[in-house]
Amino acid sequence: MPSKDFTYLLRADIYHPLSQLHLPSQFRTPNSQPLPSTPIPTLLANHNFRSAAAAAALRLCTPPAPPHEELFSLLYTRLACLTLINHLPFAAEESKALQDIDSPFYRDELTGKNVLPWELRVLAVRLQGVGYGDGRRAVGGYYDLAREARAEIKKSADPEEKQTWKERLRELGLCVANALIEMGDAGAAIRHLESLRPRNGEDEVLEGRLALLYIKAGNVDAARQCLSDTSASELRPLLSMADGRYAEAAEEWKASPSSDLAVQNLAVCLFYTGEVDETAELLDQLIEKGRSFHALTFNLATVYELCSEKSSQRKENLVERVSKGIEEKGGGERGVVDFKL
């Protein structure tokens, strides 16, 4: 590719410093922090997303300037990790540095192709929509990418490459629905997903997304129809939960294949049927197995608040258990909001 100047993406003032104040004190100890020399791929593999975001920004701002392929990979890592640790405003602001991702400046002068990686372009569309406070901008950006994907499908002679572009086009369809939901227009998102239904066969992921959206909108009958036509059986107990039949839903979750999702939803059903002790026991078992995702720790902290006069002490103990588990088995940091502190 002919040389282009991307040094405007290497300015230190673009990238926000990341404070540790949102972390419980147990996650700010030296033992819980990865070494500064830890490679970014290792940080990502261990879910140390805050450290990976900081490392990516440091490499971007430290001479010598990385080759453009590495630069764009680092920028994607930075923005994706900020999104994963709930620093969406930072990611949205930093994505503005790319400016117009469909600008001729980003086109290879020889091939005419966009030099930005596809995943970075998709992420930037969403973040810039958030950054400029315009959800329609994101929807329009996804449609621009979809137009490009359709063109590539038509002209591609390689079956594998053609399939890659088809998968990208399908993912863009789901991205549009997500953007509409973020705009608060669930009805438009439902109509959009319905328009993506294949004429022949079924799309399990699409039907599952539609069912969840119907449940969110309160149309349980439509959700039931979606799940009756698909093999996404792991979602069917949600129909009983949406109808308020928690005892039946609990039995359905017990009969479902074992997974963290099934166990947590079973615990929720038991909570609503008054079996609070068993709810806490199930959630505690997941913690002991090294699971500590946001919904799990948040729900367990809620149980502590509702059922104990010493909820603050129990939540602090929960933080200790999770931090020790992460030190022993690996995993990312957790914020104070995860434990309702």
Question: What's the structural blueprint in terms of helices and strands?
Answer:
Blueprint: H1 40-45, H2 49-61, H3 68-84, H4 88-95, H5 118-131, H6 135-155, H7 159-182, H8 186-195, H9 204-217, H10 220-228, H11 237-242, H12 246-255, H13 260-272, H14 276-288, H15 294-307, H16 311-329
Overall geometric form: globular
Order of helices and strands: HHHHHHHHHHHHHHHH
- Please report the number of helical segments: 16
What is the residue-mean pLDDT, rounded to a whole number? 89
Tell me what you see in this structure.
This protein is mainly alpha-helical. The chain is 62% helix and 0% strand. It contains 16 helices and no strands. Helix 15 packs antiparallel against helix 16 (311-329). The model has no long low-confidence stretch (mean pLDDT 89).
Task: Please name the defining characteristics of this protein.
341 residues, mainly alpha, 16 helices, 62% helix, globular
Summarize, please.
The protein is mainly α and 341 residues long. It has helices at residues 40-45, 49-61, 68-84, 88-95, 118-131, 135-155, 159-182, 186-195, 204-217, 220-228, 237-242, 246-255, 260-272, 276-288, 294-307, 311-329.
